[in-house]
Amino acid sequence: MKHPLESENPPEPGRRPAEADDIGPARFSDEATPDDSLVDSLTDDVSAQDPQEPSRPPGPGILTGLLWMLSVLIIHVVGILIAGIVLFATNMDVLQEVARNPQAAEELIDPFLKDNTFFMMAGEMLVFALAAILMTRLRHGRQTSRVLGLRPIRLPMLALIVASVLPLSLLCSGLHQNLLPVWEDFAAAYPTLDQFSGTDINEQLLPLGKSTPAWLLLLVIAVAPAIGEELIFRGIIGHGLVARHGLFVGVFVSSVYFAAVHVHPAHVLTLMPLAVFLHLSWLATRSFYAPVLIHFLNNALAVFVLKNAEQLQQAAKDSGEVEGSWAVIGAAAFILIPATVALWKNRVEFRMEDGSVWSPGYETAAGPPADVTATVVDEIRAPWPYAVGLILCGGFSTLFVVSTVAALLQ
Fold first, then answer.
1. Residues 6 or more apart from 226 whose CB is under 8 A from it?
2. Are 315 and 271 in contact (CB under 8 A)?
3. Which long-range contacts does 44-52 make (Cβ < 8 Å, 24+ apart)?
4. pLDDT tens-digit profile of 224-264?
5. CB of 128 within 8 A of CB of 228?
6. Spatial CB neighbours of 294, under 8 Å, sequence gap ≥ 6
């Protein structure tokens, strides 16, 4: 079936036939899609366009998306600097001691910073989350709520999403546990790569498990990244990349950018399944709360593991389980397939009064503008994939939780 935008008599802007299921990028002329620029990336070209003209996809594109990703790294550095300034400003005695004995500066400062690791991390994440909110608002302006899709998720889809989190987390953590030794061997053979060793977030967080309350860890490790990273990598970068380059290229490239910002090579590779699922959940539910919830729950599981690291390691040792076993990885990957299919087959649509499906001409999670009357279609339309995905993910998660709790109580 020919795409509506390619027909000789294109339909009215904002409409496409209900039976159309083309999720690739719409075709636009070079005049309609100028090259990316930093100025263009800071404006909402969706809301600014003439409603009588055919829609053109918003940015950022691949190159500008890379610049957005680099800006995230810069913001994290700025956050660390700000946290450091506040820390030393409230602990002037340390600086005074360094001034009296500059030769011992490193011996004085390093332990001090190590003892205040959580403060530095909290300050960094606070700055990042606030910057992400501001950048998103500047990017989308008054259309922020519509573009992000700040709408509730219906219970059936919410249940599928929640049930998928544990298999997804086990898949990524299992891959990380198996790839980390491979990377360490590779880095040992090429010592110049050893600089990446200090970027392993798991090693940085491990000492905090005993000294920091769980609720504070949840705020810094789960809440702040779930909001900040989703705003940037889904709400800005992913929104533009999928619109400009279609579903497959857009989701893949934005997922690479999301994984790459975590720096450590082993971590980068193993975050790809999570990144892809996060973006598909946003596009399917057309609700920004979906990837935020998945991201939060995934990181909350990391906090649970962090707070119970010794007990979990001992329980695994007593039961003879192999850490990050390929059997668990394979099972998690297998059951996530029907869950992903169910998510996409039951994706939310906006139907016009004439039965057509509203679309701006490109794949997006955004809803229609205020002057367009459309009905939200969010019921389960493909029950078999949904039932299979929910039963497999729910059963897998229940068995794993029960076995983990039983092991901890022994």
1. 292, 293, 295, 296, 299
2. no
3. 44/139, 44/140, 44/141, 44/143, 44/147, 46/143, 46/147, 46/360, 46/366, 47/140, 47/141, 47/142, 47/143, 47/369, 51/13, 51/369, 51/371, 52/13
4. 999 999 999 999 999 999 999 999 999 999 999 999 998 88
5. yes
6. 161, 164, 165, 168, 274, 277, 278, 281
Nearest to 292 by CA among 181, 155, 190, 148: 148
51 — phi, psi (to 5°)? -65, -15
The two beta strands, 357-358 and 375-377, are unpaired
Q: How many CA atoms lie within 13 A of 227 on its CB side?
A: 17
Q: What is the pTM of this model?
A: 0.84
Q: What are phi and psi of 351, to 5 degrees?
A: -100, 135
Nearest Cα neighbor of 157 from 379, 394, 392 is 379
The SS3 call for residue 375 is strand
Place of tokens 């956050």: 79
Rounded CA-CA distance 382/387 in Å is 9
**Tokens representing residue 410 in the block:** 């022994």
Q: List phi, psi (to 5°) of 195.
A: -65, -20
What are φ and ψ of residue 256, in 5° steps? -65, -45
C-beta atoms surrounding 217 within 10 Å: 23
Where helices occur in 149-195 by DSSP H, the ranges are 155-189
Bridge partners (DSSP) listed for residue 376: 350
CA distances from 17 to 53, 330, 359 (A): 19, 39, 10
31-85: pLDDT as tens digits: 334 334 443 444 444 433 434 334 578 889 999 999 999 999 999 999 999 999 9
Structure tokens given for 261? 């910002």
Question: Which residue carries 């001992």 as its tokens?
Answer: 314
Cβ count within 10 A of residue 188: 10
Query: In whole angstroms, how far apart are CA 41 and each of 27, 118, 151, 306, 311?
Result: 20, 34, 25, 38, 48
DSSP state at residue 154: P
Residues in Cβ contact with 136 at an 8 Å cutoff, skipping those fewer than 6 apart: 144, 148, 231, 232, 235, 236
Query: Radius of gyration of the chain from Cα atoms?
Result: 23
Residue type, 374: A
Q: Which residues of 262-301 are buried (b: 16+ CB within 10 A; e: fewer)?
A: bebbbbbbbbbbbbbbbbbbbbbbbbbbbbbbbbbbbbbb
Phi, psi of 76 (to 5 degrees): -65, -40
